[in-house]
Specification:
Length: 291
């Protein structure tokens, strides 16, 4: 039985016997089934998906662990992952996300995210493995130049996925050629980024501690995280104040922001279709006008 296998893996990973006394369904994001399991003393969060998706969970666990290792912003610590029967699973620390969204918590979130960006560094852009953004493959081949990385492995890859669905964005190929011009004179540090930082992946615990989760981790320009927080309604202003006080954003951010968010608009089109095509098309034309 799947739950017996998961309990046995938790026992092995923690070194402490765990037997499930109760389980209940909880929100697990857009693509996974979520469950809370407990033995009456300890509770864990379990994500379930198809057995074929076990590498997606392995990559997520590695990304969360790297974020955890910076000892900056709170993330749910990964416990174990694997397959059982026809399912893949990922077990994470249970966090009670029923805290109030206070100004202090959001300011602290911004400050701690800036510290994660500052401490989590690499020599190049990319990551040790490919992972996913939602359920879309995310290519993370190590690249020394940020403009090349973003043009090829972010915008270029998403445009190729769209073309496979029969969608050819006007000016898309020209934009790829123009990305080095759009990012000319800008040389960001490769920072450990969350990679999918919208409001649904950030919260506050019942103890008032800010937490982020469900990452699409890689080493990139830290501004990709800030840009995405503004894409779907924005975070409270205290978040931005806290971030800027800890590490001010570089000049030219407003020019780079639509390019960085185009990646997510294209990904949402590839995942969901609909009106995202129009948003992506308008953003492409806006960016081309600035070149």
């Amino acid at each position: 039985m799947i739950w017996d296998a998961i309990a046995a893996n938790i026992t092995q990973a923690t070194g402490k016997k765990f037997e499930i006394a109760n389980s209940r369904s909880v929100a697990g994001g857009c693509i996974n089934q979520g469950n809370a399991i407990t033995d009456g003393k300890r509770t864990f969060f379990v994500k379930l998906n198809r057995a074929a998706d076990v590498e997606m969970f392995a990559a997520e666990a590695l990304g969360v662990q790297q974020m955890w290792d910076t000892q900056t912003i709170r993330v749910p610590q990964p416990i174990c992952w694997g397959t059982a029967e026809n399912s893949a699973y990922l077990v994470l620390e249970w966090l009670d996300l029923r805290g109030g969204s206070t100004a202090g918590a959001w300011s602290q979130m911004g400050c701690k995210l800036a510290e994660m960006h500052r401490r989590g560094t690499a020599k190049q852009f990319g990551w040790d493995r490919n992972n996913t953004i939602g359920s879309t493959p995310q290519i993370n081949h190590w690249t020394s130049d940020w403009a090349t990385f973003f043009a090829e492995h972010r915008i270029g890859y998403q445009l190729r996925l769209a073309a496979r669905q029969g969608m050819h964005f006007n000016g898309g190929e020209r934009l790829i050629e123009k990305i080095p011009e759009l990012l000319a004179g800008y040389d960001p540090q490769p920072s450990l980024v969350h990679g999918d930082l919208w409001g649904g992946n950030a919260s506050v615990t019942s103890e008032g501690e800010p937490v982020i989760f469900d990452p699409a981790t890689y080493y990139g320009d830290r501004e990709v995280d800030i840009a995405m927080t503004e894409l779907f309604g924005g975070f409270p202003r205290e978040f931005y104040r806290g971030y800027h006080e800890a590490w001010a954003i570089d000049p030219g951010y407003e020019r780079r922001k639509p390019l960085y968010n185009l990646y997510h608009l294209l990904n949402h089109f590839n995942l969901f279709g609909g009106g995202y095509a129009g948003q992506a098309e308008r953003t492409i034309q806006q960016l081309l006008k600035t070149c």
